[in-house]
Amino acid sequence: MTGMLHPDAHPAASDTAPPFGTNAPRQPGGSDVSLPAEVSPGRFAADLPEAPTRVMAVEQRPVAQAGFAQNATKAAWKTIPSWFIVARNDKAIAPDLERFEAKRAKSHTIEINSSHVAMMSHPGVVTDQIRQAAHTTVGSAK
């Protein structure tokens, strides 16, 4: 993943990122990328039992490699409130990078002891964070 993030984003941007595998071309001149199956259990979803991580690895949908090189024209977090869960045990995105991004966006942030897939290993915490965001934004829109 080195080089796929903006080099000035944070020094931890590529410290712990797992390798991506390149799949068959999706369009002329383009490729899809995905995590190699052997990466999922130990790095992507280390706090889940191995069996579900193996299923996640083979069911993943590849993404267009070009998406990592495209720049957003506007950053929504500059004008819209955001919520963030820092996964302290994330081995796919460095937790220090997550903290940097959350702070930069002035996100309502919580930290949990989780791998990259907090929504799978800690669904209640993630649901609570989503509800908090929904109640806060709906309440402020009235």
Can you characterise this structure?
It is a single chain. By secondary structure, the protein is an alpha+beta fold. The protein has one domain: 3-Layer(aba) Sandwich (Rossmann fold), CATH 3.40.50. Helices cover 35% and strands 17% of the residues. The chain has 5 helices and 5 strands. The chain has a 3-stranded antiparallel β-sheet with strand order 1-2-3, with no helix packed on it. Strands 4-5 form a two-stranded parallel sheet. A hairpin with a 2-residue loop joins strand 1 and strand 2. The radius of gyration is 16 Å and the shape is globular. The N and C termini lie far apart (42 Å). The N terminus is likely disordered.
Keywords:
Rossmann fold; 3-stranded antiparallel β-sheet; 142 residues; two-stranded parallel ribbon
CATH fold-level assignment: Rossmann fold
- Our count of domains comes out at 1
Helical stretch tally: 5
Order of helices and strands: EEHHEEHEHH
The major pleated sheet works out as: 3 strands, antiparallel
SS class: alpha+beta
Q: What's the CATH H-level homologous superfamily? A: Alpha/Beta hydrolase fold, catalytic domain
- Name the overall outline: globular
| Strand order in the sheet with the most strands | 1-2-3
Total strands: the figure is: 5
Question: What's the CATH architecture name?
Answer: 3-Layer(aba) Sandwich
Mean pLDDT comes to 79
The radius of gyration computed from the alpha-carbon positions, rounded to a whole number of angstroms, is 16 Å
Low-confidence stretches: 1-11
Q: Note the beta-strand portion.
A: 15-25%
Query: Helical percent range?
Result: 25-40%
CATH class: Alpha Beta
